[in-house]
Predict the 3D structure of the following.
Amino acid sequence: MKIELAKSYGFCYGVKRAIDIAEEHPNSATFGPIIHNQDEIDRLKKDYNVDLVDSVDKALEHDTLIIRTHGITKERLKTLKKDSKKVINATCPYVTTPQQIVEKMSKDGYTIVIFGDKNHPEIEGVASYSVDKERTFIVLDESELVGLPLGVKVALVAQTTRKPQKYQEIAASLVVRVAELRVFNTICNATFENQDATDELAKKVDVMVVIGGKNSSNTKQLHSICKSKLEDCYHIENERELKKEWFKDKKHCGVTAGASTPDWIISSVVEKIKELSSS
């Protein structure tokens, strides 16, 4: 069986930057999972004694604190910077951008519409930068715009890992509803490239394996793209989840990975697929 990797996959700039920061600061702690990949978090704990905390009280017990790639709320960041001994902000620059846009545009009197998952830490952080919470709305579909008190001026931003096509649909729905619409392209370039490469590969294989955290938004988007192209598509976190029957009678296996998936996990998955398909 032929195994083919997507042309673009795996670690993005923001994730690599955050991992480098964690490795440069052993014995520190991250506020929330630094990335959505438990195996990599475990490696940082084992090799660098980088702990994980999820509350302000626990965070303040550490001398050095690293802010996760997805960012945190403006209020929490302010508290931590005020009371912690040392705070290193590893928020991805692509996430910092929509934070800044939301803050500026809300100050300028625009209603804020955010395309994304309201329960995702990135979106919780981005929304917190609005100066008018009652005029800040988070949607996943254009149907959710119906009945919202949008006003006459709207600024639209997107979660960095969402599908561009869906973002375009929401923008198109808004443009006929309001007098002024400002649309900001806040979807990460790496997301575009990984999604396009995954789409291209899924069209020519008969089985696809998508590697990444089960709670990783960008990995779930990659899996969704694959499922729209072929039935035999599997989302795994590591090689231990692979099953021999997935590859029975298959001739061509595609492999892609989310932005929080390190190369060492991808290599382990590829080697295990070779083993399973040849035994």
Remarks:
- Residues 135 and 149 are 8 Å apart (CA to CA).
